[in-house]
Amino acid sequence: MASNAAGVRETDSQFWKEFPAMADYFSPAIQPLLDYLGLSSKQVMHALGEMVGRGAAERLSRMTPKQMLEEFARIWERYQIGTLSVEKTDPVVLELSDCRVCGQMQGTGGLYECAFHEGFFQGALSEKLNKAVTLRQEMNYAGEAGTWCRRLTADASL
User: For residue 3, is it within any domain?
Assistant: First the structure.
């Protein structure tokens, strides 16, 4: 399988292209089962995000933690998932804005906490740094076109 200069395999690109549609599908397809079982969709999305984040870090194993986060920022932009920026590295502070996955859902005006992204970056950083990393999510109204902005602060540094 072919890889680009950053070590990202071509199938990784396909995953990121399909990610927004996958997230849109997940909730209505699974929610009735979660309700029946008494499970929280937030817990499930966090666990899914953590698993995907660990997988992403494994696929980008040749990169340093900083290079991995920079690659994630390029992926977010390239596939129009939103805007990801690394605000600080000691401790790690990430900012997500204009998110198509979990920002302000069109037509609802509501704010939705993103357990998937929190889990994704927690899993990716834990895998890359080889230690348990936790993130604290803060939200505010700051993105382009009135979307929500999230700041994720880790208890780890690069």
Answer: no
Q: Which amino acid is at 137?
A: Q
Whether 4 maps to a domain, the answer reads no
Helices (H) and strands (E) in the chain, counts: 4, 4
Q: Which amino acid is at 130?
A: N
Indicate the pairing of strand 83-89 with strand 92-97: antiparallel
Mean pLDDT (the chain) is 79
Number of domains the chain contains: 1
Quote the CA–CA distance of 72 and 125 in Å, as a whole number: 12
Report residue 96 CA to chain centroid gap: 9
| pLDDT tops 70 at residue 103 | no
Which domain CATH number covers 29?
3.30.1380.20
Nearest CA-CA partner of 121 in 30, 67, 49, 35: 49
Residue 157 CB burial class (10 angstroms; 0-12, 13-18, ≥19): exposed
Show the domain range for 25: 10-154
pTM above 0.85, yes or no: no
- C-alpha 99/C-alpha 157 separation (Å) is 25
Q: With beta carbons less than 8 A apart as the criterion, state whether 73 and 56 touch.
A: no
- Across the strands, what pairs with 142? none
